[in-house]
Amino acid sequence: MSAEHSAVEEREKHHKHEGPKKHIIAFIFSILLTIIAFAMVAAGEINTTFIYIFLVLMAAIQVFVQMGFWMHMKDRGHAFPIIGILMGVFVVFTIVIMAEYWAWW
């Protein structure tokens, strides 16, 4: 049992606990991004193409904030989940592009 206990202690030494400060900052940033997106849509007198591009940009930033801080993808040891997510994004984009191409012809 002592070997198991020392292995757990060794893992805990390498993994630093961030504490709530970064989570609170990420939460506030996420709320701020959401408020900005709602305000842009509520303004109403802005070009719709610009709003669409802006909303996609805000959503992409929101995804990176969520993945980095809430899912801890910025930490070490998350290579396989990141590769899986990137492969999923690649497959989805490929399907969307091929569906558009198929519908176009």
Automatic annotation (TrEMBL):
UniProt entry tagged with the keyword Cell membrane: yes
Phylogenetic classification of the source organism: Bacteria, Bacillati, Bacillota, Bacilli, Bacillales
Localization annotation: Cell membrane
Protein's name according to its UniProt entry: Cytochrome C oxidase subunit IV
Superkingdom per UniProt: Bacteria
Organism whose genome encodes this protein: Paenibacillus glycinis
Keywords annotated in UniProt: Cell membrane, Membrane, Transmembrane, Transmembrane helix
Membrane topology: Multi-pass membrane protein
Transmembrane segments: 24-44, 50-70, 82-104
Keyword Transmembrane: yes
Family, per entry: Belongs to the cytochrome c oxidase bacterial subunit 4 family.
